[in-house]
Amino acid sequence: MTADFGRVGVLYGGKSAEREVSLMSGAGVHEALCSMGVDAHLFDMGEKGLTELAQAGFDRVFIALHGRYGEDGTLQGALEWMGIPYTGSGVMASGLAMDKIMTKHLWQHLGLPTPGFAQLDHVSQVAAAVERLGVPLIMKPPHEGSTVGVVRVDHADQAVAAFETAMHYDTVVLAEQFIRGRELTVPVVGVGAQARALPVIDIVAPQGNYDFEHKYYSNETQYFCPAELSPELTAHIQDLSVRAFNALGCEGWGRADFMLDEQNRPWLLEMNTSPGMTSHSLVPMAAKAEGTSYAQLCVNILATARCKVQAIARSL
């Protein structure tokens, strides 16, 4: 029963570079929850602070924030301290997944396929990265999402400018080997051994440019869900998605992004722990392919809300 959720806060907006997307996600989630009889209330974390959140009387919250201060573990830590159950991953998993460099180190250590990369702290390191990774390559700020600050470098003489663009959004830059092929994404829901992958989505953007505009506003991008892949390859990619999800300690829901190269080898790019929930978003699309409506998906995610840190009884 949705009444059992009590008073629900939909946390959205925030202060990150993805605020605009979060406002759309939160509005959609709020409308959906209300349509299902949930006592849901919008709460803009960009306009209100933690004191007001603590005083709002929420029994649980749906995190519809993207990027820093909402998806990176900072808010999750505050919610743990206040004892307010929340959707999505906990403090550690959120922090790890938000840091694309640490994510890739962990996946690489566990033998999960991810493109070659380098961490760049200074422009003087750019030439060596280009020499090692080759071109094309991708420059991106490792703590942003929604392709914010992401630049493709096709020629070596473009690398410094790309580095400076990415550095505008972060204190370090992730230089990543470019994988030519198909762009895929796989939502994952659940926890631990119960985590499962939803249908694979094949994304076909104009000129292969799946940027901010083509993600959230353009109708030119094509989506194929389920993706046209062999059953064996589909199962392999879904298995990699769940393994990548669990490797980071994620729970509740998330979305793994891949490139599928010209030899049909999948390469993990990143894990999103608070994916978009806009009209163009991919988790609702995959859920719909399984017969789950947007509104029911929101309720299902809300039902998983919990505090991850358990109190330990201490004897004197």
SSE run: EHEHEHHHEHEEHEEEEHEHEEHH
Radius of gyration: 19 Å
**So, CATH architecture of the largest domain?**
2-Layer Sandwich
Number of helical segments with 4 or more residues: 11
Task: Record the SSE blueprint.
Layout: E1 7-12, H1 19-35, E2 39-44, H2 50-55, E3 60-63, H3 74-82, H4 91-98, H5 100-109, E4 117-120, H6 126-133, E5 137-140, E6 151-153, H7 159-167, E7 173-177, E8 181-191, E9 196-197, E10 201-204, H8 212-216, E11 222-224, H9 231-247, E12 251-261, E13 266-272, H10 282-289, H11 294-303
Parallel strand pairs: 1-2, 1-3
Antiparallel strand pairs: 4-7, 5-6, 5-7, 8-9, 8-10, 8-12, 10-11, 12-13
Helix pairs in contact: 1-11
InterPro entries: ATP-grasp, ATP_grasp_subdomain_1, D-Ala_lig_Van_CS, D_ala_D_ala, Dala_Dala_lig_C, Dala_Dala_lig_N, PreATP-grasp_dom_sf
Binding site for Mg(2+) 1: 257, 270
Subcellular location: Cytoplasm
Task: Give an overview in words.
The chain is α+β, with helices and mostly antiparallel strands and 316 residues long. The protein has 11 helices and 13 strands. The strands form 3 sheets. Strands 8, 9, 10, 11, 12 and 13 form a 6-stranded antiparallel sheet that branches. A 4-stranded antiparallel sheet has the order 4-7-5-6, sandwiched between helices. Strands 2-1-3 form a 3-stranded parallel sheet. A hairpin with a 4-residue loop joins strand 12 (251-261) and strand 13 (266-272). Helix 1 (19-35) packs across helix 11 (294-303). The longest helix is centred in the N-terminal third of the chain and has 17 residues, at 19-35.
